[in-house]
Known about the structure:
CATH superfamily of the largest domain: Cyclophilin-like
Order of helices and strands: HEEEEEEHEEEEEEHEEE
CATH class of the largest domain: Mainly Beta
CATH topology of the largest domain: Cyclophilin
Helix content: 10-25%
Number of helices: 3
Strand content: 25-35%
Oligomer: single chain
Number of domains: 2
Shape: elongated
Radius of gyration: 27 Å
Amino acid sequence: MKKLKIIVLIIFLVTLSSCKEDIATTKKIVFETNGGDALSSISYELDSFPVEIPTPTKEGYNFLGWFVDNGKYDIAFETMDKTTITTDITLYAKWDNPRILILMEDSREIRVELYPDIAPISVDNFLGLIEEEYYTDVIFHRVIRDFMIQTGGYFFDGVYIQPKEHKDAIKGEFINNGVENSLSHEVGVISMARSAEYDSASTQFFIVSATSPHLDGDYAAFGKVLDQDSLEVVLSLSYTPTFLIGGMADFPLEGGENLLIIHSITLIE
C-alpha cells in the first residue's frame, strides 16, 4: 500500500512538472487593432511563432502593419528577433491616414488627407457620413474670399435648395474645449463648422482658403488638402461671387446663377 502511494505521488509530481513547463513556455500574442475589427489572441511556444499573423480591417483605412510600441510605432513586429521574446506580447495595428475625394458636379476635384491622430472623433464622424453618402448633391452655401468655403448643411434637389437632415452633434476637438489639437488653420486645412456651442459640430465643415490662425483653439481642424491642384480648386471656389439669398449671407453663385454642387465625397483607395 505504501509503495502504491509513492508511485501515485511520483506520477502526480511528473504531471505537475509538465503542466508548469507548459505554462512557462506557452505565451500569447494579443492584438490591439486600434479601432479595427476584433481579433482573437494567438498562443505560441517560445521557440515556435505562428507562420501567419492575421490582418485586420478598418473602414476607410489601409493597414500598414503590426508594431510593439503603440503611439510611437518604432518597432515593427516583422523586424523583431523572435528568439528574444520570453513573455506575452501585445501588437498594435498601425493605419495610414484616410484620404477622400470631393468631386464637384463640374468635375473639379479636391483631394484631402484626414488626421485621426489629431481629431479622431471628427474624422470618424466624417467617414461615417461619407459611407452613408450624406454629402451627395450638397452645396457650398457660404463662401468668404480670402478666408474659407463652407458646406454640409444644404443640398439641391433639382428644383429647390433644401436643408439636410439633422445628425447628432459631436465633441469639439480644440484646445479651448479641453482637447489638444496641433493642426493650425493654414491654407488648405479642413475643419468642423459649429455654432456658438463648443460641442455643436455635426455635418458642416469648411476648408480654409487663406491662413487663419485666429481659428486655432476654437475649431476642430482634422485634415488638409493633398496637392496643389486641389488647393487651386479651393481657391477658385473661394473667389465665387456671393449674394444674400433666403436669409443666408455670403451665398455663392457662379455667373450669378450656378450653384457650387458637390457630386460626391468618397474614399480614395
